[in-house]
Write a structure and sequence with these properties.
One of its GO terms (molecular function) is monosaccharide binding. With about 450 residues, the protein is of the alpha/beta class. The chain has helices spanning about 15-35, 55-70, 85-95, 120-130, 150-165, 165-170, 185-190, 210-220, 225-240, 250-260, 275-290, 315-320, 355-375, 390-410, 420-430, 435-449; strands at about 5, 75-80, 110-115, 135-140, 175-180, 195-200, 265-270, 300-305, 325-330, 380-385. The termini are far apart. Bound molecules: 5-phosphoarabinonic acid. 5-phosphoarabinonic acid binds near residues 82, 204, 206 and 420.
Length: about 450
């Protein structure tokens, strides 16, 4: 495998018997997931998706990506939460650090920019300015089709498309990813003949990156999505069958729950590469929505190193001892740069001449694990061979599988998110959406009391 789990820094935090003690419960949780005997098992279509997806649709995604590449300088991807974070994470992970801001004449593929993931008017204003008079297309992604943020953004960018290209040609630049049958967007597809893709019923937002939700933006940006799916398919074979002793995703689920039960209630996902920042944003939704309910669950947070060692590092070293850390470590970063020889030592780093930045980064990683474990923070490491599409496919599956097992292990339904829906309903009521009058009334009564 290209992904491996390393628990060696847990020696002072977990006794050898603890893994054996949790093993029967862990295997039960795994069986619930793999055999579909757990609660809400109809929502685990992502589990077999890498090997069992709609091949005709997959080809249409590739064709749509080619079309966008040929007629657009910018692809605006509209979506929020699970309809946004996976694609953003994958694009950052797979492209160079400045892919979003590379000028058109220096790029082979369209600039992919995300919208509809906040309610900021300034953001949309600035994005419209950035697009300027360049050709663009829109991929609007929403399973429900009723989420406020993407709905507003879609209205704005559809209007821009119509103004620029006219009603008929605008339709050819709109790609819709939504539910197979339900929702406002599906109706718009039927009415306007937009090219459209399906978010399968059994796949919730946070598990959707390998379905059209993630695949179209990823393919449009020039990534080989066959390679991505192959990594995930091999991971499916591996993680759904291998026993605990060989299975890093199960080990991850086991150790983070052993630690959670000792009071390490907050997990920080960390990296040493800036373009992994959104890996953590994606993982925070995956873990937070999967496990944070019934008044329990590990609180997922993130830090980006070495940057945050100069800010959050103080808290991690000496603050409350309820933290555990999981480092996602890239074994072979795509590039490296030498520390230059200058012939003087005014900056005091002559001793690093002849070394590379990746070497220094590696030493930072080793030093932090030593310091933080000495400071009472247990550390786990997820090693990833490289930043290829294949490795990312495996890494996505590793976390999806590990976190879902973890939820069952902790007696939690991994696949609902009633808390997210609460906020959406309240916002509809406060904004005066038709059909939410009773809730609005109830909120007003509660506020007056
Ligand atoms: O997991 C969730 O339910 C949310 O994060 C959703 O993915 C997000 O709210 C977007 O929902 P939709 O795709 O229906 O617009």
């Amino acid at each position: 495998t290209n992904v491996s789990f390393d628990e060696s820094a847990l020696a002072n935090f977990v006794e050898p018997n603890e893994l054996n003690e949790i093993k029967p419960m862990l295997n039960t949780a795994r069986d619930e997931l793999v055999n579909g005997t757990g609660v809400e098992s109809e929502m685990r279509e992502w589990l077999t998706l890498p090997k069992d997806y709609d091949k005709e649709e997959f080809d249409r995604i590739k064709q749509a990506a080619k079309q966008i590449q040929s007629d657009s300088k910018v692809l605006v991807v509209i979506g929020i939460g699970g309809s946004y974070l996976g694609a953003k994470m994958a694009l950052d992970f797979l492209h160079d650090n400045f892919y979003e801001s590379t000028p058109d004449d220096q790029r082979d593929f369209p600039q992919v920019i995300f919208a509809g993931n906040s309610i900021s008017g300034s953001y949309v204003h600035d994005l419209v300015k950035l697009i300027g008079d360049r050709d663009f297309s829109v991929n609007v992604i929403s399973k429900s089709g009723t989420t406020t943020e993407p709905s507003i953004a879609f209205r704005i960018f559809r209007k821009l498309l119509v103004a620029k290209y006219g009603e008929d040609d605008a339709k050819k630049r709109i790609y819709v990813t939504t539910d197979a049958k339900n929702g406002a967007l599906r109706k718009e597809v039927a009415a306007n003949g937009y090219e459209s893709f399906v978010i399968p019923d059994g796949i919730g937002g946070r598990y959707s990156v390998l379905c059209p939700v993630g695949l179209l933006p990823i393919a449009a940006s020039g990534v080989d999505i066959d390679e991505l799916m192959q990594g995930a398919a091999d991971a499916q074979d591996f993680y759904t069958t291998k026993p605990l002793t060989e299975n890093g995703a199960l080990q991850y689920a086991a150790y983070r729950n052993i630690l959670y039960r000792k009071g390490y209630t907050n997990e920080i996902l960390e990296n040493y590469e800036p373009n992994l920042r959104f890996l953590a944003e994606w993982w925070k939704q995956l873990a937070g929505e999967t496990e944070g309910k019934d008044n329990k669950g590990i609180y997922p947070s993130s830090a980006n190193f070495s940057t945050d060692l100069h800010s959050l590092g103080q808290y991690i070293q000496q603050g409350m001892r309820n933290l555990m850390e999981t480092v996602v470590k890239i074994e072979q970063p795509p590039f490296d740069v030498d520390v230059p020889k200058t012939g003087d030592n005014g900056d005091g780093i002559e001793y690093l001449e002849g070394r590379t930045m990746n070497y220094v980064n590696e030493k930072a990683f080793e030093s932090v694990i030593l310091a933080h474990t000495n400071g009472g923070v247990p550390n786990m490491v997820v090693n990833v061979k490289d930043q290829s599409a294949y490795s990312l496919g495996e890494l996505i599956y590793f976390f999806e599988f590990g976190i879902a097992v973890s939820a069952y292990l902790n007696g939690i339904n991994p696949f609902n998110q009633p808390g997210v829906e609460d906020y959406k309903k309240n916002m509809f009521a406060l904004l005066g959406k038709p059909g939410y009058e009773d809730l609005k009334h109830q909120i007003e009564i509660n506020a007056a009391a």
